[in-house]
Each structure stands twice: as structure tokens, then as C-alpha cells.
Amino acid sequence: MKENLILENSYELALAVIPLCRELQMKQHEYVLSRQLMKSGTSVGSNVEEAQGGQSRADFLSKMSIAAKEARETHYWLRLIRDSELLSERPVAPVRDLAMEVRRVLTAIVKSTGES
Q1: Cβ distance 25 to 34 under 8 Å?
Q2: Which of 15, 93, 97, 115 makes the best surface tag, with the fewest CB within 10 Å?
């Protein structure tokens, strides 16, 4: 079976976001930003997963577009958490980098699917 990197990477992003949110809640008692990050960070993968079963090309494109927007939002929350010094650069950087990579791939998929 051929591996689907965007499925794997978006799932990895969700897995990476969960401990950051847990740390924000347990150590910093920050619930608003952690909830926003949890919602957007896990939504990327769920939308990519849903897109795989899209009923049409338009449905696939719509789900992948939503996933790209969620990846962009995830990147925003991670920057905000880092820049507000709720968490240091060390735990945030690899997750932020993964969110950027997922966003880039999703944007390319959306563009290439929409052009065809």
C-alpha cells in the first residue's frame, strides 16, 4: 500500500499538539489558548482524513482547504504561545515547524487539485 505523507504528517501534528496543550493546562493553568490550539491542531488531521473519502473532487478540495486553514491557525496559536512566553521555544519549535510543513503541503494540494 502506498503511504500517504499528508495523512501521516497531519496525524503527527495532532499527536504533537496534545502534550503542549496538556502542559499549558497543567503547568501554566492556561485553558483558553490551549483549547484553541487543541481544536485547530487536531482538526487538520480529521479534515485530511475526511477528504480521503470525499464524495467528489469538490468535496475533497473543500476538506483539504479547511485542513490548510486549520494548519495556518495552528501555526498562529503556536507563535502566540511562544511569543507570550507561556511556553519556551524549545517545546514549541518542532511543532510549529511541523505545522508549517503540513500547511505548505496542503496549500500545494489545494492549488494543484483546483487547477486540474
Answers
A1: yes
A2: 115
- pTM, rounded to two decimals: 0.93
d(CA 68, CA 66): 5
Q: Whose grid coordinates read 487547477? A: 115
> Which 3-state string (H, E, C) describes 58-82?
HHHHHHHHHHHHHHHHHHHHHHHHH
* Longest distance between any two alpha carbons in the chain, whole Å: 48
Query: What pLDDT score was predicted for residue 114?
Result: 85
Give the mean model confidence (pLDDT) for residues 71-81: 98
Please enumerate in sequence order all residues whose Cβ is within 8 A of that of 23, keeping only pairs 6 or more positions apart, or say none.
87, 91
Cell of 104: 505548505
C-alpha cell belonging to residue 32:
483558553
Report pLDDT digits (tens) over 18-69. Answer: 999 999 999 999 999 999 999 999 999 999 999 999 999 999 999 999 999 9
